[in-house]
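Usage

Read records sequentially. Each one opens with the input sequence:
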Amino acid sequence: MRRVRGLFITGTDTGVGKTAVACALAAWCRRAGMDVGVMKPIATGGRRTSDGGRVRWLSDDARRLARAAGCTDPWALVNPICFEEPLAPWTAAMRQRTRIRLEAAVGAFHRLADCHEYLIVEGIGGLLVPLTARASVAELAGRLGLPLLLVTRPGLGTLNHTRLSLEQIRRSGLACQGIVINHTRPAPRRPMERVAQRTNRSVLRRFAPVRGELPFRPDLFRHTCADGRLAGWIAAHLDGRWLQQLTPR
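and closes with the structure output:
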């Protein structure tokens, strides 16, 4: 089986902006002339949609990813597993009296890999979010075989959360490309919170490469790869040399 090129975007928690980072990276790859595919293997909180005559649940994150990358792949490949209730995936599956089959996600991943030169895959929650009684997001990432990019918050608490995630990556035997610090809220008003945001980056780089720090952009999903602003957000604030390593040589 050929080696698949791409990134698995994970986070220290839910709500840290994995989707924004994944979409922006996909848009950047597209603008760089790469044939990029996108995937949200497992999602919850989906909306009912018709896919090839079949009614199913579809993640808004998957829609955003596809729009950012300009992809038209079948939803069954882009978002093969999705539940209606916005809960942890194992909980959502149990409430529907079903189970998550990782083989379905892995199979869809390899079909997409056959169609694209590069894949951006967005995880769900953090690495230890359970998918089944025995498997977590870390196991799924290992099955896909892509290096990880860890998205983290800038403020108080992020040092502990980020170090715990990095330790789990190490224990799981996964490769990590580094950290992206993502601002999902306006600048805090409290002085010490602002100090924490200014200083955390220098501490985090002691434990893993910090590829960049992305400023708060409330209008991010109004843009697509077509107008260049989504890709520009990444290009302006992430390490340009690291970004260039994503492109084919």
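Summary fields computed downstream for this record:
- Residues 62 and 136 are 20 Å apart (CA to CA).
- The chain is about 40% helix and 20% strand.
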